[in-house]
Structures are given as structure tokens and as C-alpha cells.
Amino acid sequence: FGAYYTKLPYEDEITGKYADVIVKLPNEGQIVFSREFSYLPYWKTDNGKWYFQEIIPRKGDGTKIRPDKYNKYSYVRIIENSPERIIVHWRYMPDFSDLDFDGVVHEIFTITPDGTVIRSIRQGRKKLDVYNDPKNVSIQKLKLLPKGIQQLSYMAAKPPEKINYPPIDGSSVKSHHIDESPVAWWKFDEGLKSHTDKTKESVSSIACSIGGNKSVWKKGLSGTALAFDGYYSKVILPGAKAPIFNDGFTVEAWCALAVYPFSWSPIVHQCEWKKKGYYFGINEFGFPALMLSINGKWQEIVASQRIPLNQWTALAATYDGKQGKVCIYINGKLTKEQKVNKGKITLSSTDLQIGLNQMKLEASSYPTIIGIEGLLDEILMYDVPLNAKQIAKSYASLKPDSYLRNHPDLQPRILPGHPGIADKFGAFYTKLEYHELWDNMWRTSDYPDIVVKFDALPTSVVFWRGTNYGPAFVTENNIWMVDQSIETGYEGYGCCEHMSDKQCRFSHVRLIENTDARVVVHWRYAFVSTNQLKFPDEFPPTNEKWEKYKSWGDEYYTIYPDGVIVRKVNDRSGASIFWQDIQFLSPPGKIPEDQIHLKALTLADMKLWGHVKCDTLVLDWTNGRPKNTLEDANLELINFKSKYKIFLLFPEGVYIEPWIAAPEGSFTHFSHWNHWPVAQIPSDGKTALFPDRVMHSALAAADNAVFHGNMAIYGFTNQSIKTLLPLAKSWNYPPPIKSVNGGINKGYDKSQRAYILHINSDKMSFDLVGSKLRPVYHPCFVIKNWKNDQIATLEINGKIQNNNPDFRQGIIWDTDGTRTLIIWLKLESQDALHISIDKFKK
Q: Burial of 664 by CB count in 10 Å (0-12 exposed, 13-18 middle, 19+ buried)?
């Protein structure tokens, strides 16, 4: 009884060795999840095969039996593989006309040795709470028989039509009185009572719908406030019911921005952009503005004072059509007064919308719909221009105390790095949390992300959907180093990389091995263009379809208990690519210099032959982009402000090219972009204006690593770069294995940092011949054809090692359905070692 990844004999030319999943049951039957059928499983015995019922109809770009022609959006993962049960996760998009977050289906198969299968099916919904509701799950119970599949029971999903939310604790409700009556007022106090996805416009008592993933009510400056995520959240009042303005107008609002918008984002607007109506909002620099059409001419009045982040701020704007004047106020004080045309506002018939644009604006490379990320409260509108005294009185009536002003009810944005030493080395599936407004966009299973922890290091390796599953190497104080995927570009498509896949439609990770000896993670992704996630149609000169053959990357991360990780990149594109580029993240509120020293990189070469010492070079960004004069360097140590540093090791022959520095006048010495990670705007490059969002910076790239095996080593150390030389030598020049008895030596696999052997008797022995130039350093042995679940007895130079904590082993299912033994030793030597491996524990 067990499950394993394999590649079935169905050739599609775009997948690797772990493309399919087989579950073996004790009665000689198999459940097969094959890409040939877009992973709809079938049950196979000697008597035939039977497909599982297709509960959610699927339609895409393929046939009825394989609706996802190239399995762009379909994959399977083994979540649990124990003697008691096996859990398999199948994810797919049932309708290619809806590929947004909510267009997904997750199926979970829980299989036990007696042939019982519990199948739970959760379909994406527009509202997160409807999606998460237990009633949104169909449950099918099956029994696998020698001649078919018997359905024992079935309960169809019955998702609720609406969700009633419980009340939350808010602030004291304040009275607001001035000598004018508003024509519209959104108090956003529904959170104080049980509520739905509606908010009342208080003057007309019209219930306005709240759009987006989830209505998030927070403690407001008066009662409760409504949270907006910057991408989906909005409040809508139908245009026919919106207030009518002539030659006078006032709008007031309280806001607490979590970040500055990517571009113009509205507090409230009813407009056809730059043609009709009005727009009261904030730009990417944090300046509030009123825009409106007066007698058919569009006017823009922008304040010159930036509003703060993470602080309640009162904003107001007035238009006096008789005097031809616009005034903008911040916290009750006039900050901008500008003469404009006299006359009436040219109104728009569009809906009035709060918090989100109705039209696409250029936030970076491509137009997109964006909005406010933060809290809004107490939005009032008048059909007359209030004067300065009235604005000041309105502000004073709602003004919060200093603590509430400076502590709006917004969750902190902390990267989920899980630093700290673990009780046990290994990996686990999890659902990492960032902050609720971002988390609420996703419709995931319970297992979207993978974290790898160490029992001897306070560090982590994190595969998170926020980085589109590009792994993060995390220090003990939660500093994140990340890297590039396969990247290329083509005219008309822009940059093609994993960063473009904002919603992880194509990208996913799977845990292949997870034993005490090592962890193996498979990251699969498409390097697609930012421009609507298109696959380039053709790539000269081959004229082959990228969608079918080209734009897929498979990467394998072999992670050992000593914190050394081997990355192997498999590229099929035939294009001019690169994949290595040291990057690091700065969390919101931090600049790169908070994470790293200006002397950011130390390089070293190996000087293997005939040299006692290696050469080193420190790269310093103080005065701009440094130059690498150590051309043979293949070791890098990143000088983070942490105890444990991250290092990289390449095969000999690479050249490390430092990245550019920031332009003069920037808030940092280093490059700084915020279009990735986390951000949902379509962009392949947006320089951060402020350190308000998580951003990434680039240090150096080894572009020619593509000509040296497409592999590299990453790791953690609290020692100097020179202490890495034994590792560098043992990987680039591994000590040979000689005098093999009881098996066959298949050689050293550099992409695993492991020796591959086949055992063909109960005991195998060999000599591992270390030397000064080819040292033994923490070796791994992959023993195929193990044939049982019994752990091994290991002897080194005649001494049994089983009670040695530096000897670790594990047994895995290999891709052919057989058992393989993995042995890892924390062992360093420059001498020959005699090693014997016995199948029977002594």
C-alpha cells in the first residue's frame, strides 16, 4: 500500500519524471491519476479499468476525456503517504472561460488499504466564505472492487446563497452634526451587528452591494469601518440612484491606507474617466485629488501634501461652481485651493463606486483595475460646497484619539518565513498566511504551500504562492533570499517568467521525498508573458508552439539536513534563457539596507589545483554598481544582517555579474521593485516609489549557468566563505567509489549531490576514496532496488553507525514503484573510507 510519482508512457513532451501519480492497493489494483486524462483518476485491476465519475463537468481546449489539452491548469499531488492512508489532491479549472481565483476546483481523495475512498470536492465561489462553507463540499464514498467501483454514498454540495456574519467590536459611535445635511452618507457601521454583504447609504436607506472576495469589517474611527484589498473590494450604488450635483459639491471621507496605490485609486467616484462625472481619490504618491468634468471639460486638482500610511486621515474636497473654485482639505485644514471653470458638473450615468476603479488604468506595464488598500469610514457627500469652518467642524466631530488615529485596525504584513529550529528535519504542506486582505483572494486547498525546516539550523526553505512558488531561503531573523525562474522574452510578449503568473494558474509545488535523510521538492511552472498570461505563439526559428512544447519549467530541489540545497533546472524551450539571479525581499516598512550590508556580496574561487588559499572579493554597492574582478569566482556569500548567511555555489566556469544600483536620489542604494512578490498587477517591472509594499532587489546573476549543467547549490552558514571550500570541492570533484561488492555503482549525480547505487544482495560494500583535492563532505547514497521497508545497518571502517545522530536514512517509493533507500552522512574526510550497508538491522 503506497503512492508514488511516475511518468506513464503517454508522451506530451512538456513534463518530467513526476508527471503522474499511482496509488497501489494491497489487492493488486491501482488508482491512476494520469495527465492523459487531465488527471481524472481511474481504477485498474487485472479485470479492466474504470474511470471515477466526473462530478464537476469540465470543458477547455481539449477532448472530453482530456479537456485540459496540455494540462496547463491541472495537476495532482500526494499529500500524505502513510501505511494508514493516502491523500491525493487534484486541482483543475473546469471552465476555461473563468480562470480567475474563483474558477478553480479542488478534489481530495482519502484512500485506505481496504479500498475505501472518500472523495471531497470543493468548487470555487465568488465569495470566500461561501467557498469555505462546509456545505460547499460534495462528498462521495466509494469502494474499490476487483471488477469496478461501487458508490456507497454521495452528498452533493449545497453552498449557501448568502452568509450572515457575526458582529465585531467597534469604536464608540460618534455624532456628526454640521449645519448642512448630506445627500449621501456611508457610515459602514453594519459590522456592529449581524450582517451580510451589504452596506446602507444612510440618507436614502439604499442597501449597496459590497463587491469582492469577502466583506471585512474592522474597528473604525466611529463604529466599524470597511476594509478594501486594492484589487476586488468595492461598494456599488446604482447610477440611477446616485445623488445629483449641479454647481456645488462636497465629499468627505476618513481613510487609513495600508499602502499607497499603484496608480489613481478612488475613495468615491462616478465618472467616465477624463470625460464625465467626478473622481475623488489618491495617486501613487499619496496625494489626494478631486477630478471632475465642468461644462464638459475635465479638471484635475491635486493636493501637494502626502497623506500618511497606517493612520486615520480625514480628507475632504469641495467644488464651488459659482466661484469657480476647488478646495482640498486634510484633517480639517485647507491644503489646496485652485481656480477652475465656473459652471455645472457634467454628470455620468455610470454606477457610483467606492474603493475601486471601474476602468483600467496603467499601474505599470499594462492597464488594470486597482483600488484602495486599507480602511474607509464615514463617507459623506453634499450638494453644496461646505466652507472651511464647516469642514473643520465636521473633522472635529469625528476626530479619533491619538491611539486610535495611529493604530488603525489593519493586520501587519509579515512574510511567513517560519524561522527557528524545528524538533525534526523535514517538510510539510501548509497554508501560509500573509495578511487577511491578501489571503482572502485565494481559493486554495488546505495544502497550497510547502515549508522545509531543519533540526540543526534556525532557518527555512519556503515554497509560497506569494512568490509564485519560487523558493525563499529564510534566515533566522526572517530575511528572505529568492531567485529567478527560467526567464526569456519575445517581441510583443514582454518578459516571460514565473513572476507573471500572479494567481499561480500554472505554478505549483509537490513534495517528492520527505525522510530523515533528505527532502525533494518539485516546482513546476510556465514562464508566460505578463500581457494577459499568454504563451508566445511561435519562437523563431523553430516555428514550434510554445504552449505545447516550450514554456514549461521543471525544477527539483534536493534539500539535506545540513541546510545544503541542490537546485536543478530543466528547460525545454530552446530559447535564449537565464534562471539565476540573486534577489532578496524587503518587507513593508523596511528598505534593503535594513536587510543587507552595503558590502553585500563576498565572492570566492576554488583554486583547487596547487593553491593553498582561495581568492576572495567583496562587492560594495556604496558608490553604485560594483565590478567583479574575480572572474573565476563560483562561490557567493550574501552578507545579510543576520547570524546565518545564505551562500551559492556553482560549477566551475560561471561568471557572476553584479546587478545595477538604484538611480540617484532613491531611498536605497539597491534596485527595488514592487510588482513582485505578492502584488496582483500585471507587470514585468515596477520600481517602488516608497518602502510601503514588499519589494525585491537584485544583487548578481550567473547567466551562463545555463551552459554549466543548469544547476547550483544554495545553503546556510554562520561561518566565513572559505569554510565552504570542502563542499565546493566535493561537489565539483566528488571522491570516487571503488571496490563495489553486492551491487552496482551508477556514478555520482551532481544534480542530487548523491551517489547512485543498485543493491543486488543482502549486503553491499564499497570504498569512498577521499583525498585533499577530492574530500568527502556530507555524502548521500541513493540505494535502488532496496525491496523492503527495513532500515539499513551502516558500517564505516568496520564500526556500526546506527546510533550516530550524524547518520540519517529513509525509504522512499521510486518512480518505478519500487523501494529506494536514502542515506546521508554528516561526515568529512580526506581519507579512503570502507562503507558497508546491510539490509538487516543488527
A: exposed
Yes or no: say if 523 and 555 are a contact pair by the CB < 8 Å rule.
Answer: yes
Residue with cell 518530467: 16
Classify each residue of 782-791 as buried b or exposed e, where b means 16 or more C-beta atoms within 10 Å of its C-beta: bbbbbeeeeb
Phi, psi at 417, each rounded to 5°: -90, -15
Residue 725 per-residue DSSP state: H
Rounded to 5 degrees, φ, ψ at 728 are -60, -45
Looking up cell 516608497 gives: 690
What residue has cell string 480639517?
332
Q: Tell me how far apart the alpha carbons of residues 750 and 752 are, in angstroms, rounded to a whole number.
A: 5
CA angle 94, 97, 100 (to 5 degrees): 80
- Give the three cell numbers for residue 123: 468548487
Give residue-wise pLDDT tens across range 690-745. Answer: 999 999 999 999 999 999 999 999 999 999 999 999 999 999 999 999 999 999 99
SS3 label, residue 363: coil
Q: Residue 607: pLDDT band by 50, 70, 90 thresholds?
A: confident
Vertex 742 angle, CA 769 and 729, to 5°: 20
Position 529 scores a pLDDT of 81
Find out whether 418 and 451 touch, Cβ atoms under 8 Å. yes
Cis preceding-peptide flag for 677 (omega within 30 of 0):
yes
**Separation CA 277–CA 514 (nearest Å):** 59
Rounded distance, CA 261 to CA 229, Å?
11
* 776, three cell numbers: 568527502
Does a cis peptide bond (omega within 30 degrees of 0) precede residue 541?
Answer: yes
Q: How far apart are CA 668 and CA 201, in angstroms?
A: 45
Helix, strand, coil percent content, the chain, rounded in steps of 5: 10, 40, 50
Place of cell 552522512: 825
Task: Give the confidence band of 537 by pLDDT, cuts at 50, 70, 90.
Answer: very low
Residue 816 zone, left/alpha/beta (φ > 0; ψ -120 to 50; rest): alpha
DSSP class of 803: T
Q: Interior CA angle at 382 toward 194 and 210, to 5°?
A: 30
Total residues found in the chain within this entry: 842
The candidate with the shortest Cα–Cα distance to 398, out of 617, 189, 238, 563, is: 189
Whether 721 contacts 637, CB under 8 Å: yes
Among all chains, which residue has been given the C-alpha cell 539550523?
A: 457
Q: What is the pLDDT of residue 534?
A: 55
335 to each of 300, 324, 354, 701, 820, how far by Cα in Å? 15, 17, 23, 47, 72
d(Cα 520, Cα 751) in Å, to the nearest integer? Answer: 12
pTM higher than the cut 0.85? yes
The C-alpha cell at 247 is 454647481
CA–CA dist 107, 377 (Å, integer): 40
Burial 526-553 (b: 16+ CB within 10 A, else e): bbbbbbebbbbeebeeeeeebbebbbbb
Q: Is the pLDDT of residue 545 over 50?
A: no
Q: In which band, very low, low, confident or very high, does the pLDDT at 614 lie, cut at 50, 70 and 90?
A: confident
Q: Give the Cα separation of 80 and 83 in Å (integer).
A: 10
Strands 105-111, 86-92: pairing is antiparallel
Residue 330 φ then ψ, to 5°: -125, 125
Pairing of strands 519-526, 564-571: unpaired
Q: How far is CA 838 from CA 39, 148, 553, 814, 827, in A?
A: 39, 42, 39, 20, 19
Q: Which residue has the cell 542515506?
A: 823
Nearest to 88 by CA among 157, 15, 17, 21: 21
C-alpha count within 13 angstroms, C-beta hemisphere, residue 428: 10
CA distance linking residue 472 with residue 14, whole number of Å: 25
Task: Report the amino acid identity of residue 270.
Answer: Q
DSSP H stretches of helix in 647-741 = 725-732
Asked if 29 and 35 touch (Cβ cutoff 8 Å), the reply is no
Q: In whole angstroms, what is the distance from residue 263 CA to residue 367 CA? A: 10
